[in-house]
Amino acid sequence: MVSALGQCTSNRFVVVRLFVDAGIEGLGEATITARWSGETVASVTDVINNLLFPSIKGVDVQDIREINRRMDFVCKHNWFAKSAVEMACWDILGKDAGKPVFELLGGAVRSLGFRSRFSMGAYDVPRAQKRAQELVDMGFTTIKVKVGGQAEADIARVKAVR
After folding, report:
1. What are the φ and ψ backbone dihedral angles of 35, each rounded to 5 degrees?
2. Is-contact 126 159, C-beta < 8 A?
């Protein structure tokens, strides 16, 4: 991926495994991009194991507000680490209820009318144009185009994709 922050050729992740007394395991994930969040694999692992997990021990996993309050109390920022723990809590709740998490959060608001999971990097114009056509051929009707570099190059890229 190419963005205003530069080129990213790989990603690192921390997977959170949270267990509750009922024997249910919840999984969460933190994508590690230090230039974006300031977090590293080492910092996320340390914050989760030494601050976040101890702060929520004994709290009912259904009390997401209290879990977030306690995590915010023991450390500032560390959004990706906190998100991974909360994600694991929601995973437990979904498994316990036998429902997907989106249903626990209120269900679908509207039907998914377009495929929009693709975010195109800040590619040069020919590459962006070729990739956009491939995406349209796959059924995408909306493409997010990264900008934030040289204005002229950004404008040319957006025009080529459009």
Report:
1. -65, -20
2. no
Distance CA 20, CA 94 (A): 13
Return the amino acid letter for 91.
D
Distance CA 64, CA 32 (A): 23
- Domains of the chain listed by start with CATH number: 11-104 (3.30.390.10), 119-161 (no CATH)
Q: Give the helix ranges, DSSP H, for the chain.
A: 34-37, 41-47, 53-56, 64-74, 79-97, 101-104, 125-137, 151-161
Residue 126: per-residue pLDDT: 94
Percent of the chain exceeding pLDDT 90 equals 65
Answer for the pair 102, 113: CB distance below 8 angstroms, yes or no. no
Token readout for 78 is 């560390």
Query: pLDDT of 121-133, one tens digit each?
Result: 888 999 999 999 9
Cα dihedral 155, 133, 7, 158, rounded to 10, equals 10
